[in-house]
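STRUCTURE:
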């Protein structure tokens, strides 16, 4: 149940982060990807929040996700807009394509779902191997400040049928040595004041130091690493920055 995005979790995600909702990343990457001369890959595509706007912008993008529930939302979003969504169920650790990509983009901290350092570095090598020569890898990471809260929030959403979905997050552990957090996410569906369904997931994340991640990229073979804060290309992250974007290139 770790980082699984089951039925209720995917439903809440789709309500909270619908297709097209931007945190600055959609506009930023639409511009960064506009000059790509080949296909683009989005790992952990989720419900299509980012993927669909890239398709609508004319970008040749494909995507994968380990959650079939999330992929269902993405497929429906593509179908509703008469878009061809080339999607598959795969994981960071084992994804495989015959084609090479001009760019691989992982927005909004999804890479941090891989909490084991060795596994994360292996994923970076896999990204490298799937890029064409001179292809670019683009990854967003959340700054450490987003990991240090205690949790305990209760949030709610009203469904299309007028029912209530709630999410309670409870921090289980923060490991400052391993740079990881583990949170219990309890999802509940309420119909006519009665609990109709519930789902518990473990949500694990790892934070990275800025130079630590840049070194990991170089170790994987990438060059020309550019680090940007809050979607301002090449502006170094500063104190209070929420999102740190890394862009690196596979050499020719």
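SEQUENCE:
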């Amino acid at each position: 149940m770790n980082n699984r995005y089951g039925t209720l979790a995917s439903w809440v995600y789709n309500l909270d982060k619908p297709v097209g909702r931007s945190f600055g990343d959609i506009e930023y990457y639409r511009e960064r990807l506009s000059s790509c001369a080949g296909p683009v890959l989005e790992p952990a595509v989720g419900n299509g929040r980012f993927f669909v706007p890239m398709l609508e912008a004319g970008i040749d993008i494909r995507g994968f996700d380990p959650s079939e529930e999330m992929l269902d939302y993405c497929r429906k979003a593509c179908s509703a807009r008469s878009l061809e969504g080339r999607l598959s169920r795969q994981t960071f650790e084992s994804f495989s394509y015959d084609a090479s990509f001009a760019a691989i983009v992982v927005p909004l901290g999804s890479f941090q779902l891989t909490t084991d350092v060795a596994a994360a570095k292996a994923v970076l090598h896999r990204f490298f191997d799937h890029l064409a020569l001179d292809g670019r890898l683009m990854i967003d990471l959340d700054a450490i400040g987003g990991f240090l809260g205690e949790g305990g929030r209760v949030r709610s959403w009203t469904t299309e049928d007028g029912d209530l979905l709630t999410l309670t997050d409870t921090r289980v552990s923060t490991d400052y040595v391993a740079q990881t957090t583990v949170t219990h996410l309890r999802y509940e569906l309420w119909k006519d004041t009665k609990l109709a369904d519930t789902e518990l997931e473990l949500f694990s994340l790892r934070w990275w130091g800025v130079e630590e991640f840049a070194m990991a990229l170089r170790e994987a073979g990438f060059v020309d690493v550019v680090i940007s804060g809050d979607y301002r290309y090449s502006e170094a992250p500063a104190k209070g920055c929420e999102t740190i974007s890394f862009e690196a290139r596979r050499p020719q």
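REMARK: DSSP finds six helices and eleven strands in the chain.
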